[in-house]
Amino acid sequence: MAQTEKKGGLLRKSSASKKPLKEKVVLMYDEIFTTEDPSKCNPRFWEELFLMKVNLEYLEGKLEALDGEELMKIKDNINCLFQHCIQALGEEHPIRVVNALQTLCALIRGVHQKNKSTSGFDIINMLVGFDKAELCMKNLMESLDSLLCAEGSESLKSLCLKLLLCLVTVTDNISQNTILEYVMINSIFEAILQILSSPLSRREHGYDAVVLLALLVNYRKYESVNPYIVKLSIVDDEATLNGMGLVIAQALSEYNRQYKDKEEEHQTGFFSALTNMVGSMFIADADEKISVQTNEAILLALYEAVHLNRNFITVLAQSHPEMGLMTTPTSPIPTTPVTPLGTTPPSSDVISSAELPLDADVQTSNLLITFLKYSSIVMQDTKDEHRLHSGKLCLIILTCIAEDQYANAFLHDDNMNFRVNLHRMPMRHRKKAADKNLPCRPLVCAVLDLMVEFIVTHMMKEFPMDLYVRCIQIVHKLLCYQKKCRVRLHYTWRELWSALINLLKFLMSNETVLLAKHNIFTLALMVVNLFNMFITYGDTFLPTPSSYDELYYEIVRMHQNFDNLYSMVLRLSTNAGQWKEPASKVTHALVNIRAIINHFNPKIESYAAVNHISQLSEDQVLEVVRSNYDTLTLKLQDGLDQYERYSEQHKEAAFFKELVRSISINVRKNLAFNTLSQELLLKEFSTIS
Length: 689
Description:
Layout: E1 4-7, E2 10-13, E3 21-22, H1 24-32, H2 45-49, H3 56-65, H4 68-73, H5 75-88, H6 94-114, H7 120-127, H8 130-149, H9 154-168, H10 180-185, H11 189-197, H12 199-217, H13 227-233, H14 238-268, H15 270-278, H16 283-289, H17 296-308, H18 313-316, E4 320-321, E5 364-365, H19 367-378, H20 385-403, H21 405-411, E6 417-418, E7 441-442, H22 443-457, H23 465-485, H24 493-509, H25 511-515, H26 520-541, H27 545-557, H28 559-573, H29 580-589, H30 591-610, H31 618-626, H32 648-651, H33 653-670, H34 679-684
Antiparallel strand pairs: 1-2, 2-3, 4-5, 6-7
Helix pairs in contact: 3-6, 5-6, 6-9, 8-9, 8-11, 9-12, 11-12, 11-14, 12-14, 12-17, 14-17, 14-19, 17-20, 19-22, 20-23, 22-23, 22-24, 23-26, 24-26, 24-27, 24-28, 26-27, 26-29, 27-31, 28-29
């Protein structure tokens, strides 16, 4: 028997048959693409159509091939097809429902391709007609809601979510997608929550549900009341919030695992040998080889949850004990099943917390740890604009966390200690840290480590000023909490002080280049005021009196940098140029640092002369510092522990608009034909009762 081949809706025998035969469904599509009503000659036309296996490629291609005028001629038939699709969603036979869902996907995508240059209203008219739009869309949303909430097929739920993602991302700028007005009016919010709260549904559909919610929240969020924003902000159901957290943690963990795998491959491969042989000149190139595609959609979902819902903050700290645990933290253990780290992306199996696989260097894990690791990878390389945006979003999320009172409480909790293995950028002058020797510390130490790591590793010509400002703001907000609550954190503060002084040194060394693009005095002022915070309030939050002594030691030891900064800002503040005012603010802010330097330097020189020592040891300098506090006079500076709270609408609207646009394009691109494949569905519904 001759083999049958299929291509583009055509059937032909591979033997002698010359004329290709069309599939029946393709012939039926062709009838729809005429100006005649296809049900005139065949009253059972629509009934039969939804029993046929959908040919997505042919249907979409046919729509795209028509010009606007030709499409308008068959508008009535397109409207009719759309309405019959919606009717078929209420059918008992699942195959009809599957075919209707897939046809709707093809229709929405195909019609949109033709209407790219026109308004959303034209798309609505083309699909359903203005006169029937409200009722049709209401019926469509109600049907999708019922299918998502029903006990039935998981495959149907998956298709419903794909259709909704198709509907939402049909335009690059989702706020111009007027079809979404009907998704606002006929909310599917509760259906999304139900998916996230159920372990089975979450395993199968959690990722799509979370991405869908993140996109819906961003529809015209600054222009009108978005019901999805309102509803997300008041969710307080623990199972739902935990479910959302688990989906996000799983996606971020998968990214971290992929990066680690590629890093290990890279270290044992050709580039590693080459680097060892020639030196570290290839580090940057080799680094590019281990980049993994970032996931802004899931990061946006995390941001919206943290920013909008205060109850979600508790989810960040939910600790999952892992095998081989030495000490169990006192934080609550979630009762909902958790997603294993390091399994295949979002749809991987959910297992009980006791079965969570071990990451050798981490005793316990939670969403915040996973996010910090993710951030440490993404923030390494900010030269690429895509990663720059990802790094910025990570810092915005950390800003929201650093402002939250409850988040700060668990960040600084001495009873919640973790080993957090952050990724560190390979640099010529430092060795790779030994992962196994990481101490168990409160989570705030990992946040501070991440900030210090960023400060140290991004002093370059293409200076990411905005990210540096956010970094310093996060440190400042954490210090404000420590000062307010008198939290004495055992942290290696010297590393932070050293990083900040080196940053000032970099700003001065590159004054001309940087001033051409940035107001470096804003950043310099923030850094100086961090030192002022330590000087003025350090006795209330530094762990020991000797820590305060070490602060003075560092200021005196590195006095040349502060002297140079003062000379630079004094020079610019006495000129009539554009930098006069910002430079003069730094001049005033340096008053106490200069007082410390001018007070202790003569004392140290005198001590050295009296004792005939050419170079004092650290202990000797510290002795001079301790014995001369009494005669030091400092000015009280106001507002050091005050900060402006984060506001998205006023400062970040343009960033989020562009970010959501990029996510929308990416989600649409990844909704490929194969993700809408029918093979599994047809196996599942192989019999029609």
